[in-house]
User: Fold this.
Amino acid sequence: MLDRFGCTALSALFLLGACTHEAEVPATEPAAEAAAAPETVTETYSVRLFDTTIGQMVATTEGSTVTVDYEYRNNGRGPTLAETIELGEDGLPVGWTVDGATTFGNKIHETFALADGVASWTDTTGSDTAEAGEPTIYIPQNGTPYTLSVYAKALLADADHKMPAWPAGELSLDALQTLTVDGEGGPVEATAYALVGDNVDPTYFLAEADGSLFAFISPRFVIVREGYEAADTQLKELAAQLSTERLETIQAETAHKFDAPLAITNVRVFDPKAKALTEPVTVVVADNTIQSVGPDAPPAFAYTIDGQGGTLVPGLIDMHGHVSQDAALKNIAAGVTMIRDMGNDNAVLSELITKINEEILAGPRIVRSGFIEGKSPFSSNNGILVKSEEEAVAAVDWYADQGDFWEIKVYNSMNPSWVPAVVKRAHERGLRVTGHVPAFTRADNMIEAGYDEMTHINQVMLGWVLDDGEDTRTLLRLTALQRLPQVDLDGANVQHTLDLMVEKGVAIDPTYAIHEALLLSRNGETQAGMGDYVDHMPVAVQRQAKAAWSAIGSPEEDAAYKGAFDQITDTIKRMKDRGIFIVFGTDLGGALTLHRELELYQNVGFTPAEILARATLEEAEYMGLGDELGSIEPGKKADFILVPGNPVEDLKAIKTIRLVSKGDTVYFPSEIYPWFGIRPFTDVPEVMAPVEQ
Assistant:
């Protein structure tokens, strides 16, 4: 996933001009020269993803007014935003408007004004006001990346580089290092900064001495001044370095290793085979491995943690991730000890896996999927892009030759006629095949071509509502879900698809929670999936929780989207009842969103115990890893979580995690969350030293 600007920022639609005024003079006097028009300064930036320019940002400054155009397209979608910023004499915004649409089409009209000592603003969460006292800066909900220039200039002018913010919180700016970047305009000396306080992660960017924005940087996504695109790799590597240094510090301060066995006493263990809890036991861990599970007292030579009658659950698995450094740590904090990565920058992910394995960074175990996409104007710039069947088959061979990929993932722009050859070669090389349904075909055809698993429930269901020739490389693959209420789920088309899946043993990765967010989120209403934790989050996340994803243009569309979610639920239930194997993945970054993904399956008839069994041992077995992971048994790797409650009775207990064990390393989430501005959910367990050394 991209950072917040890649995910939520919008693009400008217009530029506003400034007016000039002529002074009045007596008729008998020579006319004075018209007041000089303010100088116009235009700054142009290229939006870069995976070494490709996918959009542009243009900022035009006239006097105290800045207007910004920001737009990009990746994977057939992206934000479009018009932003106008009015600056006061002190350089702080006194007016701010943002208009446009988010990546998934939600319409935005955001305003801010500071007048007569009162700040007022309106965004998708509603409207509010505040009395203006000390200098305070507004944080727009959907601002463009150019807001970084506004922040930088304001914070650099402040003595301690900190400033209170509206709607809440504080912004601070940390200078990290100075560097020179070469490009068509000659060498530029810039300072790398971390902006902290507006979200769970720092925002890294480069600015010149006066605070002018040179580049927004992340390990994958870069927005850089036009003419300096060749510095893309340098900037991504810098972002990765800065992020890594911070995350290494968190790992050093929150990862606990013990020089003797660790015993967790007074706990019940969830057994995914029996789908039940054991009687109270002590679990002893040493050398990365579970040594014993039983009623015996802890060894005198072991460190001990009193489980206080809580439950040990095997580490959770997210079957649909696109892992980044920041997400890796957040997943550990949420008890996710394994992720199936469904497509990534191959080199970046390889480096991350190495750092996790070497315990430089915290992160789950990662099972890799080899992403193959057809080259088109709508391509997802990820994995390997191909232009022919021969290139697609060669890509399969490349992934197979690496030795650490479990499957191939096919994407939207792949020519459907190439898929049988891709599947054939993948199966010959010992790789499974999953993926989207390529444009201009249907799920039935991909099942017959040999897919082992279907990705996203909408990809299956669109085959029941699309007309021939409709292009799902665009947002149509989401907006066409409005048609689902018209589908007879007991009709022949639906039954044929389900029959094929049963006959050929095809599994499904529905990504249920992302469809809930897409179809049911509404402006001003807290999303159901975030309701249990949103008050623990920084203000940016709290605002995001009250923002719709889709454009809801009428009561009819509102009803159609709600009806579509009901149809999705009923379809997943029919799949479960037919014995189709369902895996639980988020495509939302995992972590706390996996908790919501899991609890949603209660809607289709899974019990909490069945959900926990599927999200642990059964998915580990599905990926051929059940002999070493997925249950808390002697000889298996020590991947598990400690929760205070009983998740078999109430699945929400998994949202309050006191301890996460991954192999020989133990984490206490309540030590991790403050690093991200998140208020912890529980206490930190006391660790008792061994009685005997």
